[in-house]
Amino acid sequence: MAMQVQPQAPAKADAPLAHASLGRRMKKYAWGSLFLLPAVLIFLLFLWVPIAKGIGYSFYQVDFVNGNTFVGLQNYQEVLGNPDFYTAIKNTLYYMGLALVIGFWVPIAMAIGVSELKWFRGPARIIGYLPSIIPAIVLYGMWQWFYDPIGPINTFLNFLGLPSFDFYSKEHAMFSLVILETWQNFGSATLIYIAGLSAIPKDMYEAAELDGAGVWGRIRYVTLPGIKNLILLLLVLQLISTSQAFQSQLIMFGGGPDNGTLTYLLLTTREAFTYFNFGKASAMGVLMFVFLVVFSLLTIKLRKGDDAA
Amino acid sequence: MNKGKSKRALAYGGMAMFVLLAGCGGNANTENTKTNSNASANAPTENAAANVQEEAPPAEKVSIVAYAYPPDKTAENAALDARIKRFTEKNPNVSITPKYWKYENSEIAIKMASNSAQTEFTTWATEGKLLTDKKWIADLSDYMASWPYAKDLNAFATKPFVIEGKTYGIPIDAYGMTITVNKKIFEDKGVPLPPMDWTMEEFIEAAKSVNDPAKGIAGFIPMGKGTEAGWNWTNFLYTAGGDIQTVADGKVTAAFNSEAGLKALQFYNDLKVAGVIPKQWALGYGDALAMFNQGRGAMVMCGSGNALDGAINQGGISKDDVLIYPIPSVSKGGKHIGVAGGNYKVINGLADKAQQKAAFDFVVDEYFTQEYLDAIDQQIVDQKSKNQVYVPQLINYWNDDSEYGKKYQAVLDKHDNVYKYSPELIQLMESKPEATYETQAYYAEMANVIQKVLISKGDLDLQKLLDDAAAKVQKENFDKVKVQ
After folding, report:
1. What is the pLDDT of residue B369?
2. Cα end-to-end distance, chain A, whole Å
3. Which of A273, A277, A278, A280 best probes binding to B when mutated, by most B CB atoms within 10 angstroms?
4. B70, β-bridge pairs
5. Which residue spans traverse the membrane (chain A) (predicted)?
6. How far is B396 from chain A (nearest CA, A)?
7. Domains contained in chain A, number
8. Closest Cα to residue A105, out of A223, A190, A8, A4?
């Protein structure tokens, strides 16, 4: 009993103090909290609530107008029993891999190239970034023309005496999309790398030069280690964004030919907006969400291990 | 910073957030309901006044949202505004707000979930079953029963929206799928035009004779991307005597893997082998028509008036250089059957009864009237001032041989900027409605099959492709249909 009384006494004595401290803290953070409030509410309304609702919908046959019907795990069973689900996963992984091999190094090379320039650094940055500001509708129209059998690329190949390249075949369709996406997106990543490069102390380059390092030596021993963390961060971001690709696949090829560019998210949107199976689409979204959470946790763990080492 | 200011700032912040959230939740039909609530709230006062004057109570105030055209269609929007004015003068209790949203089957679910579709909107012949199953459109049978002109509607045009004996849509126009031919490409090549009563074989020969890949001109432009691919191919399935599905004993069974289906798929394969189709198979509806308008294809398949309108009025092709052919038959003298389509007015199922009634009255207000004919006449005059051609639909909401049909024909005959269909075409072509159940799923699956054919480099087992597609659609879609 004594043990119970003793802790209560100081708590009572501290209560006004704690109250005063809480009041002071509230006063101190009132303005900051006020400015945070809209962002929190917007995130809540447009991000967290949809995520929670999406998880809920995955257990229902969704009918927005006439009411939903609880179906348990049926949506998940149907998703896992659909052969297109596995085709979409395979295609998405293939697209992610291709984008890494073909596209990931481009902004790194571009940023290093630009930072090594003695003149025209500003114009080079602008030229590199220009593709990013082209509206999507123009972009896809332009690349449809580039890839056309009588478009500029094939006309040039024919001029060189080479056969036309079939950008629309099942074997090449995904490759064609990666080229298009890399061209459009490398500019913004380049700017991030350039910002990272500018944070590397100049004296490290001077020291390297005094030690006799040439251009390649500087890049290998100063530049790349200097932006290593940035490369890892952008790698994770690219993997996440390419795992959710569907826009160019939908517009350029509609997921074809013969489901050759059917990605996971494209199949999800098809379930939702072509077949109106919002429950199944939500189930696919939840599976993707789980995958990305696991992937992100794994990445954080690996990076922690790396930092500790 | 004093306490008062902080409180005021918090209050303003809260109000701003409230306004933001309230703005997010607004929609057309709640707005309508609000107007009605206000009307109801005012009703006692109005009724009291009416009792004093011993007059009939004023009609309930109703607000509806009408289907408008894109902003660049100034002539059409002006005509709509004039029609709204005429209607509201006769019905002062109804207020009508025009709003542009063009029906898309990929957007309708979101529109209905947010209750932001117009009170009356235009949709396609294919959508009847889907929209009624979801209860997104209202049953118009009662309104039709009291509309004196209901019996004068063209039965063929009305059919796609008569479902289980109830009427859900009012036809605007209808069409059958046809082949649009660029006559100039044939003339430039010195190739005679094929006969109107053509066969699939003659079609391929015609395509071969004008095909010029070096110049980027294809003999024929089939749609190969998206569900349009399946929709296009279905014309050949129909003309070969096939069906998408059969319905018996409450069960839907895939039927497109029949002998007719094989013939139709063999035809696509023959087109590919002959090299008369574009190498870039990924052409949706808009892509294929754009290509035709650019003169990069001699033939394209589309609804009878739609490709013509685009080719003449957007593509700048002379109206004398485009012709409409029926879908080729399998053998000489055979049937030329295309998929039937059309545009329909439907009433939003989420609107309340008063709004639905007002919307119905507005939609049919000028049907079978001189005002409608005057509006067409004005549209033709407006198009002439822009050097455009009026492309009438082949099938209208009225019967062509009716009094009204003759009056309409007289309006067309007054002008020289009206496209005239060949009488032989009208005699030859037949139209057949699409399947009732899970048509989009069937189209999507057939799109894969067609793409396999269009990109294949070697021999394909066409029957197996069809059988596999039929089995998949059967298991995943048709078996789940509950026929009522």
Report:
1. 92
2. 51
3. A273
4. none
5. 29-51, 93-114, 126-146, 183-200, 281-300
6. 29
7. 2
8. A190
State the residue range of the domain holding B355.
Answer: 3-32+60-175+341-413
Task: Give the A:B interface size as CB pairs under 8 Å.
Answer: 100
Tokens of A163: 């056969």
Which residue of B134, B281, B451, B479 to mutate against A (max A Cβ within 10 Å)? B451
- Tell whether B134 is covered by a domain: yes
What's the DSSP call for residue B241? T
- Kindly report the nearest CA distance between residue A116 and chain B, in angstroms: 41
pLDDT at B44: 38
Give the residue from B280, B464, B482 with the most A CB atoms within 10 Å of its CB, the best one to mutate.
B280
- pLDDT above 60: residue B386: yes
Could you write out the DSSP letters of every residue in B72-131? T-HHHHHHHHHHHHHHHHH-TTEEEEEE-----TTTHHHHHHTT-S-SEEEEEGGGHHHH
pLDDT-derived band at B106 (thresholds 50, 70, 90) equals confident
| Helix, strand and coil percent figures for chain A, each rounded to 5 | 80, 0, 20
**Distance, CA of B11 to CA of A252 (rounded, Å):** 50
* B249 and B330 inside one domain: yes
Q: How many domains does chain B have?
A: 2
Cα gap A83→B392, rounded to integer Å: 45
pLDDT one digit per residue (tens) for chain A, 309 residues: 334 444 444 444 455 666 667 778 778 888 888 999 999 999 999 999 999 999 999 999 998 777 899 999 999 999 999 999 999 999 999 999 999 999 999 999 999 998 888 788 888 888 888 888 888 889 999 999 999 988 999 999 999 999 999 999 999 999 999 999 999 999 999 999 999 998 999 889 889 888 888 888 888 899 999 999 899 999 989 999 999 999 999 999 999 899 999 999 999 999 998 888 999 999 999 999 999 999 888 888 887 766 665
**Same-domain status, A177 and A303:** yes
A166 vs B279: CB contact, 8 Å cut-off? yes
Instruction: Tell which residue, B288, B290, B277, B278, has the closest CA to residue B316.
Output: B290
Contact A65 B105 (CB under 8 A): no
Chain-chain contact of A150 with B24 (C-beta, under 8 angstroms): no
Residue B66: give its domain's CATH number. 3.40.190.10
Q: For position A107, which CATH number holds? A: 1.10.3720.10
Does residue B165 share a domain with residue B108? yes
**Residue in A closest to B455 by C-alpha:** A169
Residues of chain A in contact with residue B130, where contact means CB-CB under 8 angstroms, are 276
Residue B52: per-residue pLDDT: 43
Question: Average pLDDT for residues B443-459, to the nearest whole number?
Answer: 92
- Interhelix angle for B74-90 vs B370-385, to 10°? 160
Pairing of strands A69-70, A60-61: antiparallel
Residues of B in contact with A256 (CB under 8 A): 224-225, 281-282, 447-448, 451
- Considering only CB atoms, which chain A residues are within 8 Å of B452? 257-258
**Contact predicate A268/A281, CB 8 Å:** yes
Question: Which tens digit of pLDDT belongs to each residue from B189-247?
Answer: 999 999 999 999 999 999 999 999 888 899 999 999 988 999 999 999 999 999 999 99
Q: B447 contacts in A (CB within 8 Å)?
A: 254, 256
Q: Is A1 contained in some domain?
A: no
Strand partners, B390: B418
For the complex shown, is ipTM > 0.85? no
Using a CB-CB cut-off of 8 Å, the residues of chain B touching A272 are 109
Residues B336 and B347 in one domain: no
Residues of A with CB under 8 A from a CB of B: 30-31, 34, 37-38, 41, 45, 63-66, 82-83, 144, 147-150, 166-170, 252-254, 256-259, 270, 272-276, 278
- Side chain identity at residue B32, one-letter code: N
Residue B157 sits in the same domain as residue B282: no
Give yes or no for B294 touching A (CB within 8 A).
no
Phi, psi at B210, each rounded to 5°: -110, -5
